[in-house]
Structure formats: structure tokens, C-alpha cells
Design brief:
This protein is mainly alpha-helical and 261 residues long. It has one domain. The protein has eleven helices and two strands; from the N terminus they run αααββαααααααα. Strands 1-2 form a two-stranded antiparallel sheet. A hairpin with a 5-residue loop joins strand 1 and strand 2. Helix 1 runs antiparallel to helix 2 and helix 4 packs antiparallel against helix 6. The protein is globular and about 65 Å long. The relative contact order is 0.14. The N terminus is likely disordered.
Amino acid sequence: MTESATTTAPAAGTRGASPRVAVLRAEVRLYGRDLSNVLSVVFPPALLLVLGLVPTFREVSEDLDGLRVIDLYVPVVALISLITAALQVFPPILTGYRELGILRRMSTTPVRPGTLLSAQMWLNGVAALVSAATCLAVGRLAFDVALPREAGGYALALLLAAAASLAMGALVAALAKTAKHATGIGTAVYFPALFCTGLWIPVQAMPDALATAVGFTPFGAAARALDQAAAGAWPSWSHLVVLALWTAVTSAAAVRWFRWE
């Protein structure tokens, strides 16, 4: 974090580049230098590879309507990409900038603190989507998992899930006082979010009451929407609306409680 304090501000004044572009370039460089950020992108595809090595996960199951367990895990791991970036990487970075006074110092320059916020959201969103796309490629190339038959619906559900995840990450950053607190709060939300994706119990295998309740969470709704699109159907509008509502509500709460200083 200390390196960010000395690198971001000078970059904002780079000659020949707009403040917004300069901040984005600096953040991209800093993001790549932090090994934990790189690992957060690599971890979900690596997890999918490990899961695919389990022999029973590659066998067709009648209980899963002729699918394999690995077929169900591809959208789950794609969602893990979004959740990891939004809840484990994004909040501590942003809270650390506030804790170190970087946002306060930026308020005295042509660069607004909101520029840094938008750069971080864009960067983490792109990293998460790249990781999710890599999961789809790994599933296809390594385990012959079919690509989504309804590509448009799949992309829309994935983008809405990314928006909901980042909005939740922004809310964590708004509520946390320090980077350490942000990590703690993010972790507390992270594991229930993983459960809702169906990581431990596929949503299809959950009891009806539990599956219904999980469907009202952003990640449960996203998991159902991705499953539907993967099977060739347009995602249910009820799932897409749940994602949109979570994005709107958590974004509004983050704006309401976020502090630049």
C-alpha cells in the first residue's frame, strides 16, 4: 500500500495524458506488481483444473439430468472469479488508499478521488471477467465442457453478477475503517457468497426451501441464470431482476456511507 501512495499521485500528472488515463495506467501497473492480485485471477481456473482431476466429477450422473459434476462447476467457478476480485481484492485496496490519506491529497489536484474509485472498479471488474472467461476456456479445452448455448444471456448474467459483486465490494469499503477491517468484513461475506454459488452443494441439489432462499441472493440468482443460459434458455427475468436490485441497493448504500477521508 505504501508503494501506491508514492506512485499514483505523480502518475496523475503525467505529461500528455489526461488525469483519468494516467491514474488508470498507474493502477494497472500497481495491480500487476502485487502477487496476491495476480493469484486472485489465476486461482479460479486453477481450482477448476483441480476439481476436474477428480474422476467421479467427469462421470455422467443420472441425478444431474445426464450432466457431469464438472459441467455444473464451470459457472460456479466463473462466479468465484467475480466474488474473489470484488470482496477480497477491491475493498482493502480502496480502504488502504483512504487510510493512507491518498484520497485526501488527491482532492487538492485536478484528479478527483472518484477517478481513482472508478479506475479501481474498472480494473477489478476486467480482471474478474478475464478470470471467468479463462474458466470457460479451461472447462472446454481440458474437460470438454460445452460452451454456453445461450451466449447472450450468459454474458448478460455474468455482467450483472460482476456489477452486483463490485457494488458489494464498494459497500464493504464504505463500512470498513481500515484495510484490515475491509479484509475481515470481505472474508465474512465471501464464504456465504461461495455457498450461494453452489460451491459445496449444487443449487440444483439443495432442498427446495433452501434453493428458493438462495435464489434471492445475488450469487444464487446468478448461478441459476448462468445454468439456464448454459443449457440454451434465456435466463429467467426474475433472476436478472434480483441481480439488478442487489446492484442498485448496494450501490446506493455504498454511496451513502462511503467516506473519502
